[in-house]
Amino acid sequence: MPEAPACGILNVNKPSGLTSFDVVRVVKRGSGINKAGHAGTLDPAATGVLLVCLGQAVRISEYLMRLPKTYLAEITLGISTTTYDAEGEVTLQGDFSRVSEGDLLRVLEGFVGQIEQTPPAFSAIKTGGERAYRLARRGEAVALKPRRADIYAIRLLKFESPSVEVEVECGKGTYIRSLAHDIGERLGCGGHLGSLGRTRVGPFDVADGVTLEQLEPRLAAGDWRQHLLPMDYGLMHLPAVTLHIEDEKDLRHGQALHIDEDRTASLGEVLPGMECRAYAEDGSLAGIIRYNEEGGLWRARKVFAPCA
Description:
Elements: E1 8-14, H1 20-31, E2 36-38, E3 47-54, H2 61-65, E4 69-77, E5 79-81, E6 90-93, H3 101-109, E7 113-117, E8 126-127, E9 130-131, H4 132-137, E10 147-160, E11 163-170, H5 176-187, E12 191-201, E13 204-205, E14 210-211, H6 212-221, E15 228-229, E16 240-242, H7 245-252, H8 261-264, E17 275-279, E18 285-292, E19 297-303
Parallel strand pairs: 1-14, 3-12, 16-17
Antiparallel strand pairs: 1-3, 1-15, 2-3, 4-11, 4-12, 5-6, 7-10, 8-9, 10-11, 12-13, 17-18, 18-19
Helix pairs in contact: 1-6
């Protein structure tokens, strides 16, 4: 019987200077697994947690991208740029000398919660069918619409003017470059992102990540799978249910499920739209299911074959 294909998640501590796709290419080439992708882009200059999904794990990237994220950001006051980071052309130079720590704390507090932010013109967002950064590099005007962002917390770690170091906890789609730019604007002196590290994505911590320096020899030796985390490691925020063997068979054949109450008792109140991890009786992850109030049935969102 052939061995089940490898699938899972690599928590890679991305170095500065590589794109997220550069890292994926290294993993694909070294592992021999073509089905691979990442769950959340990091800018080339940024470092830290980059989740590389292999095999079937590519199909849960949407769930991983919804996980809360934590960043360590260094903001430089007094200079705004076209890219909102240190690589762009200077657009404004302002006087930061009068900015006090109290001023800074008040401004930071104003960004906590649900906010509207405009992504940088130099970003991968598509506008008119083309990436915004390509238009910006050609000198064309880029008008991106403001987007909602969820900022759960901003902690001031260090203030040595003009340098500001903050820790930011946020949701999907937050642009820390835009946050740095907007903080500078609100302080009246301008500002840009000096450096950025992603320290956490849900349960994935940078301290537990593997660097490319550590990973590449393992890929060459063929024993890299010791760093591969199971798919459900990134799904622990979803409740879990173990299926009867007949329900598992129905799930794999695309049938809606009527799961016995004794198996869903641990879920508490089952609400319409509720999603769960569904396990086979052998403990393997069989899929992700969603409850449909009509008929009291559970339907498959994702179905997974056994992994190595």
